[in-house]
Amino acid sequence: MKAYLATSLCQERDVNRAQPVLQHLNFTEVSSATSFSRQLAEQMTLAKAYVIISKEHNNLHLAWQLSSKIRSCQLLLSKAAMRKEPISLEEAEPIIRSLSSLILKAQEAHYDIATTMMTMKSHIQALEERANAATVQSTLFGQLTSEALPKSLHCLKVKLTTDWIRSPPLQELADEKRNSPRLVDNNLYHFCIFSDNVVAASVVVNSTTSNADHPKQLVFHIVTNGISYGAMQAWFLSNDFKGSTIEVKNIEEFTWLNASYSPIVKQLRDPDSRAYYLGGNEYLGVEPKLRNPKYLSLLNHIRFYIPEIYPQLEKVVFLDDDVVVQKDLTPLFSLDMHGNVNGAVETCLEAFHRYYKYLNFSNPIISSKFDPQACGWAFGMNIFDLIAWRTANVTARYHHWQEQNADRSLWKLGTLPPGLLAFYGLTEPLDRRWHVLGLGYDANIDNRLMESAAVIHFNGNMKPWLKLAIGRYKPLWERYINQSHPDYKYCITS
Predict the structure, then answer these.
(1) 292-307 pLDDT, tens per residue?
(2) Any idea where the domains of the chain sit in the sequence?
(3) 395-438 pLDDT, tens per residue?
(4) Under 8 Å between Cβ of 401 and 366
(5) What is the pTM of this model?
(6) CA 110/CA 108 separation, integer angstroms
(7) Relative to the CA of 115, which of 65, 183, 437, 486 has its CA 20 to 30 Å away?
(8) Which residues contact 298 (CB under 8 A, 6 or more apart)?
(9) CATH fold group of domain 152-493
(10) Which SUPFAM superfamilies does its entry note (predicted)?
């Protein structure tokens, strides 16, 4: 808008100097049809400014005349674009003449320039405020949409939960598998997924086993909440995943994970924190992406307690529930971690993924201990050496930083910032092809990069199970859904 105002005022001065030329425009001197389009566009810009000025001075008839000619001009330019032919002299002449005449009429009104400038500035400010409000609203709507579970998936969860409750044999089978020696066998390959989304977790498991060289050697440890526990059990007990072992745990049975042990549990129960994330009136200025209930979900934070949940395991690959696995992941378990705890793909190929973008370096607690230019990395596909984790006592480091951030002064968003702090100096960079991110917000990821990726990650609001998912990526996720399952077929068709 500011550039538009400057252009308008410059054009106004040009028109003042060339009034006789405009009044007696000789169209035979115009050298090409593109000049007609350019003249029309320039006159429209100036005319729009005079529409605003005329309305401010209550000259509504002139404002209406200008608006009418602007519409005629827009229509002519649109028609020319659609037919892919240049504007002819016969089409351009009457509009350029009449619009020139109206612009001169507006100038002859001798509007006070100082008043006009103040008026235009107020309009610019109002437009900027409206644009900012629209951006915030759009972000908020996008956030709300990404949080909502589609009706079909909600239906599936209800149907599966009913199956679980009504089927004692399923419950007995789950009890039998709970004590399987495979769950603690470190000669096998262990993966953990923390989710309340049945289909998303199923896609992760199915894509991992489908692309594994030896799927029967894979063990999946799924943790969910009490609401989704029955549905998860019913789904994974009634589907075959190429002979892999699957365990489902209920986070509500982790009695040790309580407010006296875990600072995050204490903070998540705090009314002020809940108001901050869920949107109390006193926090109307909070950035929309922060006002997300997922930050109040303990499932989002238990990645920092993997050694406590699985005390007998030595290595585990952590997978987010919005990833798709495309290649065999078992070579991760034989990578040399050089004594580090966390193997992750770094994300600082772009400058905004360095530590200073996630953490408050104006606080001496942060600036005295961390390098602001240190490279960030991604959660979503991580190999964790749990022996090294226990030796370095990473969970205690995580607790320390959560306690320091009780007032949200060190960081404000999610689990990555405390992860960057807890695993600082303990992270082994992985080849970028292990984990390609951005499928939940970036529509222009290179096909070759995606094809070479071991794991593709739909991080962002455009999750593959939502209607707002990016179309070209959605089939990569959908092909790993068991669409023949009767409950799934019922919920999708109904």
Answers:
(1) 556 668 999 999 999 9
(2) 36-147, 152-493
(3) 999 999 999 998 889 998 789 999 999 999 999 999 999 999 99
(4) no
(5) 0.71
(6) 5
(7) 65
(8) 225, 251, 257, 264, 265, 268
(9) Spore Coat Polysaccharide Biosynthesis Protein SpsA; Chain A (3.90.550)
(10) Nucleotide-diphospho-sugar transferases (SSF53448)
